[in-house]
Amino acid sequence: xxxxxxxxxxxxxLLLPSRCVGCGAGGTYLCDACLGRARRAGPLAFDPAARAxxxxxxxxxxxxxxxxxxxxxxxxxxxxxxxxxxxxxxxxLSSSGVRADVVVPVPLHPSRLRQRGFNQALLLARRxxxxxxxxxxxxLLRRLVAGTPQV
Length: 151
Hints:
The protein has six helices and two strands. It is mainly α.
């Protein structure tokens, strides 16, 4: 993050202090207590024959504070929550034993990108890549069909 962006982020934090989306505690958008209470998802079941990858994993179950965080990022545009969300993702990747060469975010359909103004998956991928020391490539996949919003 550049110096100007860091100063801007600190100024916003002074005017609008962050509050945990789970419990309202100050200082972060997703506090350690709420992360500690969140149920871990781990490997997910899927049909390997129908996919072009070996395993799917999620750090947290899509419920409670984790679900609220996703919804605030995607639909309320709360981009500042990305570092708090990326931390458990990076920890899950680091502890998984997976040897990755690159982090690839799921692409957003152009119409959804225009509507939202940013790609939340790219935002998270950049934070995860930074945390685990991997490059992020958003030019390897392309979304051809706009799906229904995941809520």
